[in-house]
Amino acid sequence: MKFLNIGLIVCVTLISNAMCDYEEAKAAAELCKEEVGATDDDVETILKFEPAGTMEAKCLHACIIKRFGVMNGDGKIDRDKAMEILTIIASGNGEQQALGVEVLEACADIDVNEDHCEAAEEYRTCMHAKAKENGFIMGRV
Fold first, then answer.
1. Which residues, listed in sequence order, are joined to residue 77 by a DSSP beta bridge?
2. How far apart are CA 54 and CA 110, in angstroms?
């Protein structure tokens, strides 16, 4: 169940593509957890929208968003993929769509660390802060 939930968080935080479904998300989370040596605590950190407390948690996040194509090989956000999921999250709500675009515009081009794990955390931090500031609801789908 934890991996299913992390997949939802992935989708909800503008870090997946429009094809995101429960099974894909679950599989990605399981593969990434093993790949980066993350723990259940690292998974819980992401589920609670908390800052990553370990490098493994940061790398877990980076791995997942790469698997869904939202972080490219250069460690940058793919705006097209992010916009696809934003459309799903907004579910036809024009106000939420506009707020989500603000989040994306504020965070997609920030200067981030060359280390993709650190970059993923920097993107997460920016997106969560901007969403809190402007009222975009991250936990929907």
1. 71
2. 22
What's the CATH code of the domain at 126?
A: 1.10.238.20
In the chain, how many H helices and how many E strands?
A: 7, 0
This prediction's pTM: 0.80
* DSSP SS3 for 66: helix
**For residues 107 and 134, is the Cβ–Cβ distance under 8 A?**
no
Amino acid 121 reads: E
Going by pLDDT thresholds of 50, 70 and 90, the confidence category of residue 45 is: confident
Separation of alpha carbons 77 and 85, rounded Å: 13
Range of the domain at 54: 2-134
